[in-house]
What we know:
Blueprint lengths: L1 H59 L5 H71 L10 E5 L14 E4 L29
Antiparallel strand pairs: 1-2
Helix pairs in contact: 1-2
Amino acid sequence: GAQEAVRRASDDVEVLESRIRGARIALELVKRQSAAAIAQAEAEFDKAEKDYKRFSSLADKKSIAQSRMDDIKKTYDVAKAGLSLAKSSLTDIRLKENDVATVERELASAKTNEGMARAALNGAMARKREIEATLNDTFLYSPVKGTVIDKVIELGENVVPGTPLAVVVDLANLYVKTYVEQRDIGKVKLAPFGRAFD
Protein backbone atom coordinates (compact mmCIF):
# COMPACT_ATOMS: atom_id res chain seq x y z
CA GLY A 1 0.00 0.00 0.00
CA ALA A 2 1.22 3.42 1.00
CA GLN A 3 4.43 2.11 2.61
CA GLU A 4 5.31 0.23 -0.60
CA ALA A 5 4.68 3.39 -2.64
CA VAL A 6 7.07 5.34 -0.39
CA ARG A 7 9.71 2.60 -0.73
CA ARG A 8 9.39 2.57 -4.54
CA ALA A 9 9.54 6.39 -4.70
CA SER A 10 12.63 6.42 -2.46
CA ASP A 11 14.26 3.79 -4.68
CA ASP A 12 13.49 5.92 -7.76
CA VAL A 13 15.13 8.94 -6.10
CA GLU A 14 18.24 6.89 -5.24
CA VAL A 15 18.52 5.56 -8.81
CA LEU A 16 18.17 9.05 -10.29
CA GLU A 17 20.67 10.52 -7.84
CA SER A 18 23.13 7.83 -8.98
CA ARG A 19 22.33 8.56 -12.65
CA ILE A 20 22.87 12.28 -12.15
CA ARG A 21 26.26 11.66 -10.55
CA GLY A 22 27.19 9.53 -13.57
CA ALA A 23 25.87 12.15 -16.01
CA ARG A 24 27.89 14.89 -14.29
CA ILE A 25 31.05 12.76 -14.41
CA ALA A 26 30.47 12.08 -18.12
CA LEU A 27 29.94 15.80 -18.74
CA GLU A 28 33.14 16.73 -16.91
CA LEU A 29 35.09 14.07 -18.84
CA VAL A 30 33.77 15.31 -22.20
CA LYS A 31 34.62 18.91 -21.24
CA ARG A 32 38.18 17.98 -20.35
CA GLN A 33 38.67 15.85 -23.45
CA SER A 34 37.13 18.55 -25.63
CA ALA A 35 39.28 21.30 -24.14
CA ALA A 36 42.45 19.23 -24.69
CA ALA A 37 41.46 18.29 -28.25
CA ILE A 38 40.58 21.89 -29.16
CA ALA A 39 43.80 23.24 -27.66
CA GLN A 40 45.87 20.72 -29.62
CA ALA A 41 43.91 21.30 -32.84
CA GLU A 42 44.25 25.09 -32.48
CA ALA A 43 48.01 24.77 -31.98
CA GLU A 44 48.34 22.54 -35.06
CA PHE A 45 46.12 24.86 -37.09
CA ASP A 46 48.04 28.01 -36.00
CA LYS A 47 51.34 26.40 -37.08
CA ALA A 48 49.89 25.12 -40.37
CA GLU A 49 48.29 28.52 -41.08
CA LYS A 50 51.58 30.38 -40.46
CA ASP A 51 53.43 27.91 -42.68
CA TYR A 52 50.78 28.23 -45.39
CA LYS A 53 50.89 32.04 -45.38
CA ARG A 54 54.69 32.15 -45.34
CA PHE A 55 55.12 29.59 -48.09
CA SER A 56 52.29 31.04 -50.21
CA SER A 57 54.30 34.20 -50.81
CA LEU A 58 57.35 32.05 -51.73
CA ALA A 59 55.24 29.95 -54.08
CA ASP A 60 53.98 33.11 -55.77
CA LYS A 61 57.59 34.04 -56.43
CA LYS A 62 58.32 30.47 -57.57
CA SER A 63 60.95 30.23 -54.79
CA ILE A 64 59.76 26.75 -53.69
CA ALA A 65 58.67 23.69 -55.60
CA GLN A 66 54.95 23.27 -56.26
CA SER A 67 55.01 19.80 -54.67
CA ARG A 68 56.32 21.33 -51.44
CA MET A 69 53.55 23.95 -51.53
CA ASP A 70 51.00 21.21 -52.17
CA ASP A 71 52.20 19.37 -49.04
CA ILE A 72 51.96 22.56 -46.96
CA LYS A 73 48.45 23.26 -48.33
CA LYS A 74 47.44 19.70 -47.53
CA THR A 75 48.80 20.04 -43.95
CA TYR A 76 46.89 23.34 -43.62
CA ASP A 77 43.62 21.77 -44.87
CA VAL A 78 44.02 18.77 -42.54
CA ALA A 79 44.72 21.08 -39.55
CA LYS A 80 41.69 23.22 -40.44
CA ALA A 81 39.47 20.12 -40.66
CA GLY A 82 40.94 18.82 -37.40
CA LEU A 83 40.11 22.08 -35.64
CA SER A 84 36.58 21.99 -37.03
CA LEU A 85 36.21 18.39 -35.85
CA ALA A 86 37.61 19.23 -32.39
CA LYS A 87 35.14 22.12 -32.07
CA SER A 88 32.32 19.79 -32.99
CA SER A 89 32.98 18.09 -29.64
CA LEU A 90 31.28 21.16 -28.16
CA THR A 91 28.08 19.54 -29.41
CA ASP A 92 28.90 16.53 -27.23
CA ILE A 93 29.24 18.89 -24.29
CA ARG A 94 25.82 20.41 -25.00
CA LEU A 95 24.34 16.90 -25.28
CA LYS A 96 25.90 15.85 -21.97
CA GLU A 97 24.67 19.09 -20.35
CA ASN A 98 21.21 18.27 -21.69
CA ASP A 99 21.52 14.74 -20.22
CA VAL A 100 22.36 16.24 -16.82
CA ALA A 101 19.45 18.70 -17.05
CA THR A 102 17.06 15.92 -18.07
CA VAL A 103 18.08 13.70 -15.15
CA GLU A 104 17.84 16.71 -12.80
CA ARG A 105 14.24 17.24 -13.95
CA GLU A 106 13.51 13.52 -13.51
CA LEU A 107 15.07 13.68 -10.03
CA ALA A 108 12.95 16.70 -9.08
CA SER A 109 9.85 14.85 -10.29
CA ALA A 110 10.86 11.70 -8.38
CA LYS A 111 11.40 13.74 -5.21
CA THR A 112 7.93 15.27 -5.68
CA ASN A 113 6.49 11.76 -6.11
CA GLU A 114 8.35 10.62 -3.00
CA GLY A 115 6.94 13.58 -1.05
CA MET A 116 3.43 12.80 -2.27
CA ALA A 117 3.85 9.12 -1.34
CA ARG A 118 5.07 10.11 2.14
CA ALA A 119 2.13 12.51 2.50
CA ALA A 120 -0.26 9.71 1.47
CA LEU A 121 1.36 7.38 4.02
CA ASN A 122 1.12 10.04 6.73
CA GLY A 123 -2.53 10.60 5.80
CA ALA A 124 -3.22 6.86 5.96
CA MET A 125 -1.51 6.63 9.35
CA ALA A 126 -3.54 9.61 10.62
CA ARG A 127 -6.75 7.98 9.36
CA LYS A 128 -5.75 4.75 11.12
CA ARG A 129 -5.14 6.62 14.39
CA GLU A 130 -8.49 8.40 13.97
CA ILE A 131 -10.31 5.10 13.36
CA GLU A 132 -8.58 3.53 16.37
CA ALA A 133 -9.58 6.52 18.52
CA THR A 134 -13.17 6.27 17.27
CA LEU A 135 -13.19 2.53 17.96
CA ASN A 136 -11.82 3.14 21.45
CA ASP A 137 -14.65 5.63 22.00
CA THR A 138 -17.16 2.82 21.41
CA PHE A 139 -16.19 1.15 24.70
CA LEU A 140 -17.89 2.39 27.86
CA TYR A 141 -16.23 2.38 31.25
CA SER A 142 -18.03 3.05 34.51
CA PRO A 143 -16.43 5.69 36.70
CA VAL A 144 -17.24 3.54 39.75
CA LYS A 145 -17.06 -0.15 40.61
CA GLY A 146 -20.39 -1.75 41.08
CA THR A 147 -23.24 -3.74 39.61
CA VAL A 148 -25.52 -2.66 36.76
CA ILE A 149 -29.04 -2.69 38.11
CA ASP A 150 -30.78 -0.96 35.19
CA LYS A 151 -30.05 -0.33 31.49
CA VAL A 152 -31.43 3.05 30.44
CA ILE A 153 -30.43 2.76 26.73
CA GLU A 154 -30.97 -0.28 24.52
CA LEU A 155 -28.43 -1.74 22.06
CA GLY A 156 -28.28 0.23 18.79
CA GLU A 157 -29.68 3.51 20.14
CA ASN A 158 -27.77 6.69 19.36
CA VAL A 159 -26.68 8.79 22.30
CA VAL A 160 -24.96 12.09 22.82
CA PRO A 161 -22.23 12.75 25.39
CA GLY A 162 -23.67 13.03 28.89
CA THR A 163 -26.64 10.72 28.27
CA PRO A 164 -27.07 8.19 31.12
CA LEU A 165 -26.72 4.64 29.79
CA ALA A 166 -27.08 2.49 32.88
CA VAL A 167 -27.55 2.65 36.64
CA VAL A 168 -24.58 1.22 38.54
CA VAL A 169 -24.69 0.56 42.28
CA ASP A 170 -21.79 -0.18 44.60
CA LEU A 171 -23.35 -2.87 46.78
CA ALA A 172 -20.68 -2.36 49.47
CA ASN A 173 -21.86 1.22 50.06
CA LEU A 174 -25.64 1.17 50.01
CA TYR A 175 -27.71 3.91 51.48
CA VAL A 176 -31.43 4.42 51.66
CA LYS A 177 -33.22 7.69 51.32
CA THR A 178 -36.77 7.48 52.50
CA TYR A 179 -39.45 9.55 54.14
CA VAL A 180 -40.73 8.51 57.50
CA GLU A 181 -43.71 10.04 59.20
CA GLN A 182 -43.02 11.99 62.38
CA ARG A 183 -44.84 9.56 64.61
CA ASP A 184 -42.74 6.56 63.28
CA ILE A 185 -39.28 8.11 63.66
CA GLY A 186 -38.77 6.46 67.01
CA LYS A 187 -39.17 3.06 65.43
CA VAL A 188 -36.26 3.58 63.00
CA LYS A 189 -32.88 2.10 64.00
CA LEU A 190 -29.68 0.99 62.28
CA ALA A 191 -29.11 -2.69 61.77
CA PRO A 192 -25.80 -4.34 60.75
CA PHE A 193 -25.55 -5.19 57.02
CA GLY A 194 -27.21 -8.49 56.21
CA ARG A 195 -29.47 -8.59 59.30
CA ALA A 196 -33.19 -8.35 58.94
CA PHE A 197 -35.02 -5.39 60.41
CA ASP A 198 -37.19 -5.96 63.44
